[in-house]
Amino acid sequence: MNFKSYIEKNEPKVDNNYSQNNKKVNNNSSKLDENNIEKMYNNYSKLNQQELLNEFIKESKLAKNNGTFSDEKIQNMKEVLSPYLTDEQKQYFDDLINMVK
User: Fold this and answer.
1) Predicted model pTM
2) Could you give the number of structural domains in the chain?
3) Three-class SS string for the chain?
4) Domain limits at 81?
5) Cα separation, 1 vs 10, whole angstroms
6) pLDDT in tens for each of the 101 residues of the chain?
7) Dihedral pair phi/psi, residue 18, rounded to 5°
8) Within 13 Å and on the Cβ side, how many CA atoms surround 66?
9) What pLDDT shows up at residue 3?
10) Closest by Cα among 94, 72, 74, 77 to 6
């Protein structure tokens, strides 16, 4: 499974009328398309490590609150990303996962 397939399969279910940043959106499609993935990449790639950490924690809390956070999804994400991470990045990722569980 590649990253795009993972995102499409595991898209977080949030309020149908609001995006992650609480802006009104048109949610006609339940799947992320390439434009949305590119937008997300462009937004997140501008953040430094601390900003990314804060965003990860915020989104994890939102997912927990709306019932879309699950150990299974986290494990799937870990399996998809692990081959692309160094040992140090894997350890950091594990620490992040344990922090939000």
Assistant:
1) 0.54
2) 1
3) CCHHHHHHHCCCCCCCCECCCCCECCCCCCCCCHHHHHHHHHHHHCCCHHHHHHHHHHHHHHHHHCCCCCHHHHHHHHHHHHHHCCHHHHHHHHHHHHHHC
4) 3-100
5) 12
6) 555 565 556 655 444 444 444 444 444 444 557 778 788 888 888 888 889 888 888 888 898 899 888 888 888 888 888 888 899 999 988 998 888 88
7) -135, 140
8) 13
9) 55
10) 77
Contact between residue 78 and residue 98 where contact means Cβ atoms under 8 Å apart: no
Q: Write out the two tokens for 93.
A: 């990722």
Tokens coding 43: 């937004």
- Token readout for 25 is 């959106």
The answer to whether 10 and 73 have CB atoms below 8 angstroms apart is yes
Decide: 59 and 14 in contact? Cβ < 8 Å: no
